């Protein structure tokens, strides 16, 4: 197959062309060909390659984004629909080797199949050229897919907001105390009390301390009439 | 904090000690200290670093393991309980900076907290020394945690087994045909017919073509009295 264009589009020239061929071989084709290698193992690897490259770039691009926001941005970028769109923009579907049954059933245009092939291709780039090559390829491909930092949704970090408000109004911070836990080990709940410098106290209850704190802070913000952007 | 021992145990000497310190700072401590950096963003990154390093090593160690098996091996290695055990064996808990509330509640010995700190530490190694440094550290730490190739559970790849059996008994392969689909788009089911060289036909039905094929193959194996290792 002539893949010069494809290699150009992904910014990687394969040394081991067999890796690229395997990445483009759907199991339905491999099965027809008496068990030639298919792309499923490469997909397993490529999924992790993509995850790390996107995580690292997100980490660097958004130095102030909390972990939850980074996770959401990453999910958007690597979800099946997004990867399938990328695969189409790379003309990957023209290069995928499919079994006859899968072909007849329109497999060449199935999101899942396209996304898998793209992941497999990134796994192949990683094996062929190492992490640096995979990163280069992925950053190129995702170059214009990142959200603008200014466009990121405001995160609901109630605790930080309550701290700001308390500093501003009372020149002091709220204090969080784990007031107790209850329930059996596997469904433990945590009770956290947020006490404002005024003495007003708000209790958050949740299955994690972090969420209980957030909840306590949210209650505090509400009592202070700070809009919580719900 | 004196972390010479720790750095030795993870086979990485930090150039940017601040990264290591951030990795060992739980949010409960950072919150007490007026929002110093905590380890949550590093944990986000480290999770992906770990995932890729373990995926790559699994891919190399088990060249014949199908994707599903690689996924299971990886899950075992990186699940919270496993990472917490590793954190303990590294004496990580002695180095973690905790808030007072979390400390009083025994947070220093919580699996989730320990696993997160270990992930964050691997994220810090990655930022400090690059992918090669993270891989070296992770492969060292997981050195003796891998299953032996011989100990891997036999995978239930009915299709491959049916092909072997058919070749052996009938000198020909079974043929798989997608016989049809039904149901609305979001809960579509696929019907796959596996036809043996003898003409006997077995229908698998599933929400994915792959699983329908496996199911059809399983029925074929059963009809041929091949034990399916259930």
Unreliable stretches of chain A (pLDDT < 50, length at least 5) are: none
Distance between the termini of chain A: 54 Å
**SS content category of chain A:** mainly alpha
Order of helices and strands of chain A: HHHHHHHHHEEEH
CATH topology call of the largest domain in chain A? Ribonuclease iii, N-terminal Endonuclease Domain, Chain A
Fourth-level CATH superfamily of the largest domain in chain A: Ribonuclease III domain
- In quaternary terms, these chains amount to homodimer
Q: Summarize the main sheet of chain A.
A: 3 strands, antiparallel
Strand content of the residues of chain A, in percent?
Answer: 5-15%
Average pLDDT of chain A: 89
The helix content of chain A is 55-70%
What is the CA-atom radius of gyration of chain A, in angstroms? 25 Å
Shape of chain A: elongated
InterPro entries (chains A, B): dsRBD_dom (IPR014720), RNase_III (IPR011907), RNase_III_dom (IPR000999), RNase_III_sf (IPR036389)
Subunit structure (chains A, B): Homodimer.
Protein name (chains A, B): Ribonuclease 3
Binding site for Mg(2+) (chains A, B): 43, 116, 119
